[in-house]
User: Fold Orotate phosphoribosyltransferase from Halovenus salina.
Amino acid sequence: MTEALIDLLRAVEAVKYGEFELSHGGTSDYYVDKYLFETDPDCLDAIAAAFADRVDDETLAGVALGAVPLAAATSVAAGSPYVIVRKQAKEYGTGNQIEGTFEEGEEVVVLEDIATTGQSAVDAVEALQEAGAVVERVLVVVDREEGATENLAEAGVELESLLTASDLLDEQPDT
Assistant:
């Protein structure tokens, strides 16, 4: 599955080379464009199938905005409900930070697109735990291998990735 997924991400040119600023403020000589793989039906289907193989009876949680398509597609593939976790509670309507429902004590697995430091996943885990969920795992499409595993471990959560940056960059083109 790993090679097939790498081929799909490369086919949609999701990996870019150059100089890029990352969401945590650092820079990188490559960028994984989640919107290219999340909006391609073949990529989205493959990711959802791979995630569905790794979940049991857990409710899924997609971190807004990037992981919402992943959570929705995986929900259909796995037959599992999902919730959406916002970065912060909205200031209108219901004022929710978590959209959707789960029971207190229910197991929830967080889905994420790309993990660099893992901070957005840690924030989502904390919000879910404060709302009564039991969260032990985060599933991510690509782990950039820049501290997310360690940061999530400090929060008591395991990071599982479909791919790592090493997998994707193994045969990088000349830049």
Q: What stands out?
A: Residues 14 and 98 are 29 Å apart (CA to CA). The mean pLDDT is 93. The longest helix spans residues 41-54.
